[in-house]
Amino acid sequence: MELEALSLAYPPLIVFAAAVLVLVLPRIAGFTVGALSLAAVLAISLVAPEGQHLAGTFLGFEVVPYYVDDFSRMVGLGLGFLGICSVVYAYSSEASETVVALALVYVASSIGAAFAGDWLVLLFMWELMAVTSTLVVWHYGGEAVRAGFRYALFHGTGGVLVMMAIAAHYVQTGTFVYTEAGIADGIPALLAVLGMGVNVAFIGFHTWLPDTYPRPHIAASVFLSVYTTKTSAFVLYRAFPVDAGSELGIYIAYMGGLMAVYGATFALLQHDMRALLSYHIQAQLGYIVAGIGMATLGSDLAAAGAMSHLFNNVLFKSLLFMAVGVVIYRTGEEDLYKLGGLWREMPLTAIGFGLGALSITAIPGFNGYVSKGMLFDAADPHYYGQPEYQALYWLLWIGAIGTLLSFIKLGYYVFFHGESDYEVADAKPGQTVAMLGLGGACLLFGVWWQGLADLAPTIHGADFAFSYYGGESHLHPYSPGHLQTAGILTGVAAVTFVVVRKPLSKLDLGDPAMVVYPATYYGSRWTMVAVTETYAAVDAAVVGAVKRCYWAGNNPVLAVDAAARRLPLVDVDERQPTDGGRPSTIHLRASIGTSVLLLTLVLTVILWLLVV
């Protein structure tokens, strides 16, 4: 009976109800309800029975709003735990009830997308996620409003592509329900990878990320840093699941490798702390996307690595946004080069940042080391990678070095470089609890890596399964070979930072992809001008022609005279108009509505006659 009750407890609905209560209850009570709703999502994700729940029909189509398997369970656990910490952080960071209510609706739509069992429900949640995340950005006002418009345009375009992919998929398969084959091959797969590529920040589609996430309230940035991108990466996996064999798999994998390098490179060039972290969302998504591409071509290890890294990214990326948010909250400064020496003023924040930085850079003992190691092994042709992954493997290596460089730079200039010019308090209690909670989870799954392996789908019972302590496996994450690789990466990054630190601080190069904004603006402006001027010219020509025809009908003799005067060798006597020159007038005896109705009826009869 308890399991049946859990199968009816729809997680998104619980969070949505909490969002409404946040608006009507006293502040502390509302935020408590919000945190508890996400605790319920965490519990349900842990124990809900596998399979389809709440299945039925909608407008004659079969739908599965609530589907539980190892993949959705893992994502639900990560999103639920992060949600609890994010609400606590928001309360302590003085976020308004309105922004938290909007954020909870956004979270509910994200969780709904993760637990969807068919493409129709997924599409609804996908669009709701785009709308609510835009409102979260807009609520802050100022520069966030314009950034929110650009954000909405990107996600609206991506949503249309996804909708077209789903429609084409239904035409080919006759069902919206998920299958083991994922999205249908051909046009549906191509449209899906383009539409989902917007949300997972494919190169060229990524500019909304660093443009938007640095602008809203620091608590809003924490929510935004995870739910759209990680949920979308999971949906990309649903479209291209393990062993699907999609022809696009190799291109998806290499796009992921390029994202890892591109994101890390432009993160290194940032002065704005949240912009730096935003580029690293793209970089870490690159590892996940690379894993999905390899997984769809048949690598169970890549699928486990992609989902594990997605889960870990939920933890350490939000932690880093929290730590940087506390620095901004206390100092009011966004530029990392204008800070320094803050570890003495803000030791707890420095610890929180350190835990997140050690995790994202894959230092042994932290969760990122385990999941990133899976992806390295899946790509390495000397382990379980295919020969065509050799270049991908090196791209992932370069991205890892760039990640280490970025976070050495960020930590050095914010917390350790020179003396602090600020006398500020450390993180507030709620901020500290949220940061250390996430940091503790990062450390837990790095030390107790078996727990992460148990959560990872596709890894159980496989020949290459991670062995537990005492077992034998060359894929043990703390084997000498893996530790040596981590040591080489760390050493190369540390030495490189010493060499490039000074010239790097003088660089201020923009992202070339940002040309999309002025190009889109001027392109749209001139397109609008061209369309409106063309319409005005056509309108003037049509109106002029109608007026001339009407005049000719009322003054046929004068019309013949006027036409004859234009002919050579013809003489026409001047005539006086019989009406004394008074212009003709038209008297309408029917209202506009009646005229439109009559015109519609006439056109309907004509179309009916043509069809029959």
Automatic annotation (TrEMBL):
Mind telling me which NCBIfam families this protein's record contains?
Answer: PRK12668.1
Show the GO cellular component annotation of the record. plasma membrane
Q: Kindly state which keywords UniProt assigns to this record, in alphabetical order.
A: Cell membrane, Membrane, Oxidoreductase, Transmembrane, Transmembrane helix
Domain named NADH:quinone oxidoreductase/Mrp antiporter transmembrane: which ranges? 116-378
* Pfam families (UniProt xref): Proton_antipo_M (PF00361)
| Protein name, UniProt field | Na(+)/H(+) antiporter subunit D
Compartment(s) of residence: Cell membrane
Query: A GO molecular function for this record?
Result: oxidoreductase activity
How does this protein lie in the membrane?
Answer: Multi-pass membrane protein
Q: Does Cytoplasm count among this protein's keywords? A: no
Tell me which InterPro entries the record gives.
ComplexI-like_HydComp, ND/Mrp_TM
Name the residues that span the membrane. 6-24, 31-51, 71-91, 98-117, 123-140, 152-171, 183-205, 217-237, 249-269, 276-298, 310-329, 350-371, 391-412, 433-451, 481-500, 592-611
Q: Which organism is it from?
A: Haloarchaeobius amylolyticus
